[in-house]
Task: inverse folding
């Protein structure tokens, strides 16, 4: 327990340092990447495991519907 150092009333970092890590352009590009048809398609094509699970589920649902 003696190795833990707690700083009470630590001063805030300078505003320039805070602004350095704020990247709104990255936020916009990530948002458009995940909320557009092209971005979603690209994510699914890269993740083969999820794409395989979705294809298996679709085939099973179609077999279940057509077997009745």
Result:
């Amino acid at each position: 327990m003696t190795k833990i150092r707690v700083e009470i009333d630590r001063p805030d970092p300078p505003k320039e340092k805070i602004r350095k890590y704020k990247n709104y352009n990255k936020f916009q590009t990530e948002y458009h990447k995940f909320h557009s048809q092209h971005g979603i398609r690209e994510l699914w094509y890269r993740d083969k495991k999820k794409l395989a699970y979705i294809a298996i589920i679709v085939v099973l649902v179609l077999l279940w519907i057509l077997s009745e």
DSSP finds four helices and no strands in the chain. Residues 14 and 20 are 10 Å apart (CA to CA). Residues 24-67 form one domain. The two ends are 67 Å apart (CA to CA).
